[in-house]
Amino acid sequence: MNFLEEKTKLHELVDTFAILADEMKLHEQAQLFTEHGILESHSADGQVFTFQGREKIEKSCTDFMNLFEIHFHNNGQAVFEIQDENHATGTAYNITVLIGENENHENIMTTNGIVYHDQYQKINGQWFISKRESNFLWTKSEKYGE
């Protein structure tokens, strides 16, 4: 097994997840999870939301992303550990900038600092996310365009 090649594939998986979010291709994004994959979201205020299976993951991401008109995900550093031919783990950092209208019709920009703790599984030669723990470490909201 070529560890460098496998880590590159995992990095591409994490980057593709972010790009599909920005493009609002949330059905395709959900397909990056295993069939029974888990998305666990930890908010900055301590709330935890868990979604299992591609359909529920897609719905949760769609419901959230539809709150905003502009989406921008920027991945930073990421490290991956290959456990065996078909299993790996990873930690990836991400900054998101989301802009949408609030109830007062003001444009609000919400910036999030997120750390993903992932588990990956290779199926038929392709890496998938089997579990993603999204940790929203901080969130900042402010008026946009003034």
Please report which band the strand proportion falls in: under 5%, 5-15%, 15-25%, 25-35%, 35-45% or over 45%: over 45%
The total count of strands amounts to 6
Low-confidence stretches: none
| Secondary structure tally, helices | 3
Question: What is the global morphology?
Answer: elongated
Task: Classify the fold: give the CATH topology.
Answer: Nuclear Transport Factor 2, Chain: A
Structural class: alpha+beta
Distance from first to last alpha carbon:
53 Å
Overall CATH class = Alpha Beta
- Using only C-alpha atoms, the radius of gyration works out to 16 Å
Organism: Catenisphaera adipataccumulans
Protein name: SnoaL-like domain-containing protein
Pfam families: SnoaL_4
InterPro entries: NTF2-like_dom_sf, SnoaL-like
